[in-house]
Specification:
The protein is an alpha/beta fold. The chain has a single domain, classed as Aldolase class I (TIM Barrel, Alpha-Beta Barrel), CATH 3.20.20.70. 43% of the residues lie in helices and 14% in strands. It contains 19 helices and 14 strands. The chain has an eight-stranded parallel β-sheet with strand order 4-13-12-11-10-7-6-5. Strand 5, helix 6 and strand 6 form a beta-alpha-beta unit. It is globular, with a radius of gyration of 20 Å. The N and C termini lie far apart (49 Å).
Length: 396
């Protein structure tokens, strides 16, 4: 059954897993598994979530709690709680509102949104949809000419910062996608779609919205000089031709005067390099387990990166966050804030804007409740004393 504002009742949607279940019911298998799946054996995908259970809380008792202020500052922007929405590609396939819905929900919740290069709505429209800070995530798809055009547009539209993803020299091998016909859905001949047609027809709510929206959208923010917006089915090839290197950061800094965030680091050495290259922040990220499999879960990599930057720049983290308690654990280990991807994408796939807003409502409630139960007088004083970390999580 397709979810809507009428069906997202508190009794049905208690946590993020409930939104995942509703998204799975509404979306064709190809779209859901694109969102839900990971690379190869999906070991890292699983470990990103499981690693949070290795960190145990050490609560304080008999602590009087007043008003719980969850506000923090990220890259000079005040946000209402220590989480923001990560860039999620192909969002418009999950729901026609796509990036517009996610940006709007983030703004209404008083937090930030990061727009993926692989997006179907124009960046100007996404910025206008949000009351909060909006950042642009950059791939060098289409070459420097296309990137220069996007950066100029983002600057003119008032984006608050630039997030450069550095862990995607090629797309990871996400084995669910070829089995489920994701490539065939995105392009190819009508005959190639036939083996997957029954599953698509079994999801009429999604199909109606997809067709009314015009089918697979072009990449509105990758405008090829002399050609126009890139076709969305060219993404895998384009990624393989658009590796971002440390040398590119100098060129990017000449074009972008605002804060730059380097996303996709897992080691202290890379974090120190990002500091040397002038980054304002780094994101400890393994791309949600969608690139190289069998790497550290991000929570386990976080302490090493925090120690390496030594307070010189902000450290953010993503990967495996499904509960507000996960956010609190990351803050205890040194993250300034956490980015969520699948957690809100499930809401988007389930019910568009309403689903994203519900995901944020759930996580905000989780965070506040966890801090109160910890007996922590203020979010700003969360630190390692409130958690116990496995001994083998040593900092290298």
């Amino acid at each position: 059954m397709a979810a809507s504002s009428r069906t997202l009742k508190s009794s049905q949607v208690v946590n993020i897993s409930d939104l995942r279940r509703l998204a799975q019911a509404r979306l064709p298998k190809s779209v859901f598994d694109y969102m839900d799946g990971g690379a190869e054996a999906e070991a890292t995908l699983r470990e990103n979530c499981r690693a949070f259970s290795d960190v145990l809380f050490r609560p304080r008792g008999a602590v009087a709690m007043g008003q719980c202020d969850l506000r923090t500052r990220v890259l000079g922007q005040e946000i209402s709680m220590p989480l923001m929405l990560a860039p999620v590609g192909y969002s418009r396939l999950m729901h026609p509102e796509g990036e517009l819905a996610a940006a709007r929900a983030a703004g209404e919740a008083g937090t930030g949104y990061i727009l993926s290069t692989i997006s179907g709505h124009r960046l100007e429209d996404v910025k206008a949809a949000s009351k909060g800070p909006v950042f642009y995530q950059l791939y060098l798809m289409g070459g420097r000419g296309a990137a220069e055009g996007a950066l100029d547009r983002a600057k003119r539209a008032g984006f608050s910062g630039l997030v450069i993803t550095v862990d995607t020299p090629v797309a990871g091998m996400r084995e669910r996608d070829p089995r489920n016909g994701m490539k065939e859905l995105m392009g190819g001949s009508p005959f190639a779609k036939l083996p997957f047609l029954s599953d698509i027809l079994a999801h009429p709510g999604w199909l109606f919205g997809f067709l009314r929206d015009g089918g697979v959208p072009k990449l509105a923010n990758v405008v090829l000089p002399g050609k126009g917006p890139m076709e969305m089915n060219d993404v895998a090839v384009a990624l393989a031709e658009s590796t971002v290197t440390w040398a590119d950061l100098k060129w990017i800094r000449e074009l972008w005067t605002g804060p730059i965030v380097v996303k996709g680091l897992l080691t202290g050495d890379d974090a120190r390099r990002a500091v040397d290259e002038g980054a304002a922040a780094v994101v400890v990220s393994n791309h949600g387990g969608r690139q190289l499999d069998s790497v550290f879960p991000t929570l386990r990599a976080l302490p090493e990166v925090v120690a390496a930057v030594n307070g010189q720049i902000e450290v953010l983290m993503d990967g495996g966050v499904r509960r507000g308690s996960d956010v609190v654990k990351a803050l205890c280990l040194g993250a300034r804030a956490v980015l969520i991807g699948r957690a809100y994408a499930f809401g988007l796939g389930a019910a568009g804007y309403v689903g994203v807003a519900k995901a944020l409502e759930i996580l905000r409630g989780d965070i506040e409740r966890t801090i109160r139960l910890l007996g922590c007088p203020a979010m700003s004083v969360l630190n390692r004393q409130y958690v116990e970390v496995p001994a083998n999580w040593q900092v290298h």
